[in-house]
Amino acid sequence: MESIKSVALARIYEIQGLKEDALKIYREILLAHPENKEAQTAIKRLMLVQKHFPPTNQIQKELFVNPQSQEDSIQFQRWLLQWNSKI
Fold first, then answer.
1. DSSP 32-56
2. Distance (Å) of CA 72 to CA 21, 61, 62
3. Burial level of 5, CB count in 10 A (0-12/13-18/19+)?
4. What is the pLDDT of residues 13-24, one digit of tens each?
5. In this structure, are residues 10 and 20 in contact, taking their beta carbons and an 8 Å threshold?
6. For the segment 10-62, what is each residue's pLDDT rounded down to a tens digit?
């Protein structure tokens, strides 16, 4: 029953966008239960998502969260347009 709760928790994290936390739980499940198909499938899915959407650029994140000037906002907008064109 513990593994079901963990899979459920990992799914909740995934839905909330906490992909790294979900991945950690799925990996812990596999350590305890290597045959767990749900965890195996979820890890493959999350790894594929990470491949297509690399981690957030910390510099750009800071410009978005805490712009210090109009130029910072413009720089972030340019980066966002460039990033969006790659999707």
1. H-TT-HHHHHHHHHHHHHHHHSPPP
2. 31, 11, 10
3. exposed
4. 998 888 889 999
5. no
6. 999 998 888 889 999 999 999 999 999 999 999 999 988 776 665 666 777 77
Regarding whether 73 and 41 lie in a shared domain, the answer is: no
Residues 7 and 48 in one domain: yes
Tokens (6 digits) for 29: 């499940």
Output the pTM of the full model.
Answer: 0.57
| C-alpha to C-alpha distance for 84 and 87, rounded to whole angstroms | 5
Total domains in the chain come to 2
